[in-house]
Write a structure and sequence with these properties.
about 325 residues, alpha+beta, Neutral Protease, domain 2, 2 domains, five-stranded mixed β-sheet, 8 helices, binds asparagine, binds zinc ion, M4 family metallopeptidase
Length: about 325
């Protein structure tokens, strides 16, 4: 009958997943009736407007291959749904602005466009098809990263330059990892890598590494006085490193089959508290204590305040937060 349905889709990266759809007349639309009506559009290689809403006759979407136009739509619609569910189920957050309103997603932006982006102006996310239009930037971590830019804008509103810009970028990478772990897809289990599915470097390596961000050749591992002059996608490194240390602890470790080896600036060890506890602390810091001008020192005090609220001042978890900041050369 008309209205809310749950279809099935096969994405390029997410595997076969459930998808919220809506039956209108005899056609299913990629409109997620269970999540405030989030809509997924096919830009058809255009770069403006909304193109066409994805529609389908049988509510079975995509085939896992980039040659099928629906495949990218499956991955981005699922990414938006998973991220919506994560914020709602873990934090009680009702949408990006906590106002119950859905954003929308646009796939197939431009030609061989190698990026994805969030815009507050349209309250929407947009995804390129990547090199050769065959490596779309539509993985779960990329979708969660972009959607989290909307959450950051609606909360701390960290200015997108200087140290606050690095913290803004790190916030998107942090919740990208948290969503991946929470969703635990067989096709894309949780990791502390960013963009490991999209082959953006052409050699299968990820875009960013959280255990030791300098593995990408550009990101910084630790805070230093000139960090605010670094591109925000590289000055995010120390905060990503903080989050890894807090989640998993220092040293060598394998998680879901991926090997990490996280050093500390001060040479002292950090004991991990688990990714979802670390994410809870970052979320409370972001939404309660950080402001548009928060820098790394301010992020330290914000997360310590959040940890005190959630776990108790000077609790083992609070002390792990302090140790993880010392591990990236913030505080002592
Ligand atoms: N994909 C990039 C990001 O989310 C787009 C940008 O540079 N803002 O950071
Ligand atoms: Zn970003």
């Amino acid at each position: 009958e008309e209205g809310v349905h749950t279809g099935t889709g096969t994405g390029q990266y997410n595997g076969t997943v459930p998808l919220g759809s809506t039956l209108s007349g005899s056609t299913y639309q990629l409109v997620d009736g269970e999540r405030a009506g989030h809509r997924t559009y096919d830009l058809g290689q255009g770069t403006s407007g909304t193109g066409t809403l994805f529609t389908d006759a049988d509510d079975v979407w995509g085939n896992g291959l980039p040659s099928n136009r629906q495949t990218a739509g499956v991955d981005v619609a699922f990414g938006a749904a998973a991220t919506w569910d994560y914020y709602k189920e873990v934090f009680g957050r009702n949408g990006i602005r906590n106002d119950g309103v859905a954003a929308y997603s646009r796939a197939h932006y431009g030609n061989s466009y190698v990026n994805a982006f969030w815009q507050d102006s349209c309250f929407c996310m947009t995804y390129g098809d990547g090199s050769g239009n065959a490596n779309p930037l539509t993985s779960l971590d990329v979708a969660a990263h972009e959607m989290t830019h909307g959450v950051t804008a609606a909360t701390a509103n960290l200015t997108y330059s200087g140290e606050s810009g690095g913290l803004n970028e790190a916030t998107s990478d942090i919740f990208a990892a948290a969503v991946e772990f929470y969703e635990n897809l067989p096709a894309d289990p949780g990791d502390y890598l960013v963009g490991e599915k999209i082959n953006i470097n052409g050699d299968g390596t990820p875009l960013r590494y959280m255990d030791k961000p300098s593995r990408d050749g550009s990101s910084h591992d630790n805070w230093s006085p000139g960090l605010g002059n670094v591109d925000v996608h590289y000055s995010s490194g120390p905060a990503n490193h903080f989050f890894y240390l807090l989640s998993e602890g220092s040293g060598a470790k394998t998680v879901n089959g991926v090997a990490y080896d996280s050093p500390t600036y001060d040479g002292k060890s950090v004991t991990g508290i688990g990714v979802q506890n670390a994410a809870k602390i970052w979320y409370r810091a972001l939404t309660t204590y950080m402001t548009s001008s928060t820098n790394y020192a301010g992020a330290r005090t914000a997360t310590l305040s959040a940890a005190a609220d959630l776990f108790g001042a000077y609790s083992p978890t609070y002390l792990a937060v302090a140790d993880a900041w010392a591990g990236i050369n913030v505080g002592s």
